[in-house]
Amino acid sequence: MAWVFLGLAGLLEVVWAFAMKQSHGFTRLVPSLITLVTMIASFALLSASMRVLPLGTAYAIWTGIGALGAFAVGIIALGEPATAPRLIAAGLILSGLTLMKLSS
């Protein structure tokens, strides 16, 4: 269950990052509330996963899921550029996450 909790925590991190962008500096109520609620849920699930998983592994994978997810949402939903250097950087993050998971 720890890995499931960690995966859900990472997905919620993507949601709160996107909602935070949409809140325009917490000046819009609904995106601000979504940010706060999903942030709390993400931290709670991360905390639950850390009961079993090592700190370094859990935190690295949580932030990696968030980083890659936010990167993808930025490209797909916000029209951010998908340049070769950015895609290579995302690939390196994914490689690091894979190695972290395999070493656990």
How would you describe what is shown here?
- This protein is mostly helical and 104 residues long.
- It has one domain (2-102).
- It has four helices and no strands.
- The relative contact order is 0.16.
Which features characterize this protein?
transmembrane helix; flat; transmembrane; EmrE-like; transport
SSE topology:
Layout: H1 2-22, H2 29-49, H3 55-78, H4 84-102
Helix pairs in contact: 1-2, 1-3, 3-4
Total number of distinct structural domains: 1
Low-confidence region ranges = none
Q: What is the SS-derived class?
A: mainly alpha
- Major sheet characteristics: none
- What general form does the structure show? flat
Distance between the termini: 15 Å
Beta-strand percent range = under 5%
Percent helix, as a range, is over 70%
H/I helix tally: 4
Listing every helix as H and every strand as E from the N terminus to the C terminus, the arrangement reads HHHH
Mean pLDDT: 96
Query: How much is the radius of gyration in Å?
Result: 14 Å
**Total number of strands:** 0
Quick overview of this protein structure:
This protein has 104 residues and is an all-alpha fold. The chain has four helices and no strands. The chain has one domain.
